[in-house]
Specification:
about 500 residues, mainly beta, Elongation Factor Tu (Ef-tu), domain 3, OB fold (Dihydrolipoamide Acetyltransferase, E2P), 3 domains, 9-stranded antiparallel sheet, 38 strands, about 45% strand, elongated
């Protein structure tokens, strides 16, 4: 048997113990001198139990119980949604002996936030079933311990194996103060994916360049005269105002040419009624008028006080802004672009070897990195426009062009993002959320929860990714819980060299 880990805590010494059906561990919570005093100064090991329901986590510590001697139970209760300690409620412990006799104890108030600390004893030695029920405003749950042992005397308590050791202590009080969460490794259906770098491009139907139709000076005498970069604009709203020049390609010349073409057409109609001009001469006058009319309409209205208003041809946002108040522009100069970001094109450049196994993508995972991690674009929000066609000889990649619903605005025009193109090939495997996997010294690791306040760094071998999940080929077993949020803090805690974590209740 391995040498048990003994943790000094005040006058009490605690060792790890195994409880069938639950997760058990040693701990460093100080129960004070009462533990040692129960056996006249003998060392009494303690038991730690960790269990989960769908909504709550229980982490309970108590000394090995001896008949007719009281013991203090330290009961930590966490609501998994938000990973917060309970702040109100009631705990009820029901012990059922082998002959069916039931003994009940209750705690109606918390020692402090998240912790109940009832103290009581049981008169008869034996093995009990224990149902611990919490009822409160945040949640309600019942935890079941199949074998709760009460010893006839301290002499019948045996030393316990402390396990492999090397665990990382991270207290409940620390977990509750940061964004923290855990999740079990579970068997899931996994779709295979192909990694690529993608460029976000504007969809042609949602991209318009606004150019100066005449020579002139940009006017911005009041708010709304000139749309600013990034501003959202509606179709038909003013994006710029130009005071045209009087010569060259000026507005006045265009207006005079339009009026003259209109007069020439009216004259041609009168002459045609009298058969005084040929069909060719009439067509020339009509075509000149139609051309001048189309050009005049392109000016988006005449404005007021001799100033021409330029309006947005589509709804969207202002980009590629190249104009400032008072600037002189010539006809044909690009002033800005209006882009509708609700629908974008995503060009993913796939490596040659991966392209051959891709097929038709059925979804995209955008790997945003940072706190957000990423998100999945489902098949219903994308359209495959083109795949393949030509390989880039420099990068050895092949383009895959997708049209994507971007109403959420998460993708920005012209950005490059790493993506995973989800294929139609499926399989099953053990998987954990992506956020549970960390790179540490060049290898993938997860932090497995081996007890309520104990964690172990596990080297894992990862497999295919799918959406927010990644398969684990080696290093974890089904049902083991891993840290999915707050793992960096656990990693920091792993660098401290500290025996136990003895904090007093």
């Amino acid at each position: 048997m391995k040498k048990p880990l003994i943790l000094a805590a005040g006058l009490g010494l605690f060792a790890m113990v195994d409880v069938p059906g639950v997760m058990a561990q040693g701990h460093g919570h100080d129960h004070g001198a009462e533990t040692a005093a129960r056996a006249g100064g003998d060392e009494i090991p303690s038991v730690a139990v960790t269990q989960w329901t769908d909504t709550m986590e229980l982490f309970m510590e108590y000394p090995e119980m001896i008949a007719r001697q009281p013991g203090r139970f330290i009961i930590h209760l966490t609501v998994l949604d938000g990973f917060q300690p309970v702040r109100d409620g009631r705990v009820r412990l029901v012990f059922t002996a082998s002959d069916g006799v039931r003994v009940e104890h209750a705690a109606d108030s918390l020692l402090r936030e998240g912790i109940f600390a009832p103290e009581f004893g049981l008169d008869e030695a034996g093995v009990y079933g224990l149902d611990l029920t919490y009822e409160g405003p945040e949640a309600s749950s019942t935890f079941r311990i199949l074998e709760f042992r009460v010893h006839a005397s301290a002499a019948s308590i045996h030393a316990h194996d402390d396990g492999p050791g090397g665990e990382i202590a991270f207290l409940k009080e620390q977990q509750w103060k940061i964004p923290f969460s855990t999740a079990p490794a579970e068997e899931r259906e996994i779709r295979q994916s192909v990694w690529a770098i993608a460029e976000v491009l504007p969809a042609p139907a949602g991209y318009v360049e606004v150019v100066a139709p005449v020579d002139g000076v940009i006017q911005a005498g009041s708010v709304g005269d000139l749309a600013m970069p990034g501003a959202a604009v509606k179709r038909g709203s003013t994006v710029a105002r130009i005071a045209p020049t009087l010569q060259g390609n000026g507005w006045t010349e265009s207006e005079l040419a339009y009026v003259q073409a209109e007069r020439n057409l009216e004259r041609a109609r009168r002459l045609r009624e009298k058969n005084a001009i040929s069909d060719r001469e009439f067509e020339e006058a009509e075509n000149e008028f139609l051309a001048r009319q189309a050009g005049r309409r392109r000016l988006s209205g005449t404005g007021v006080d001799g100033v021409l208003n330029l309006t947005a041809p589509i709804a969207g946002r202002i980009m590629d802004w190249q104009v400032r108040p008072g600037q002189y522009v010539r006809a044909g100069d690009r002033l800005m672009t209006v882009v509708d970001p609700d629908v974008v094109w995503l060009q993913a450049n796939v490596y040659e070897a991966d392209f051959r196994s891709l097929g038709t993508p059925v979804g995209v995972f955008v790997n945003a990195g940072g706190d957000e991690g990423g998100w999945t674009i489902p098949e219903t929000d994308l359209k495959v426009l083109a795949t393949g066609g030509a390989q880039d000889p420099a990068t050895r990649t092949i383009p895959v062009l997708l049209e994507v619903d971007n109403a959420s605005g998460r993708l920005s025009i012209n950005e490059s993002v790493p993506v995973e193109l989800i294929t139609s090939r499926t399989g099953t495997g053990l998987a954990v959320p992506r956020s549970a996997v960390y790179r540490d010294d060049g290898v993938d690791v997860v932090f497995a929860q081996v007890g309520g306040e104990s964690f172990a760094k596990r080297l894992v071998k990862t497999g295919p990714h799918f959406g927010d999940w990644v398969t684990i080929l080696e290093g974890l077993r089904p049902g083991e819980r891993v840290v999915t949020s707050g793992g960096y803090h656990v990693k920091l805690a792993s660098t401290t060299t500290e025996i136990g974590h003895g904090h007093a209740h």
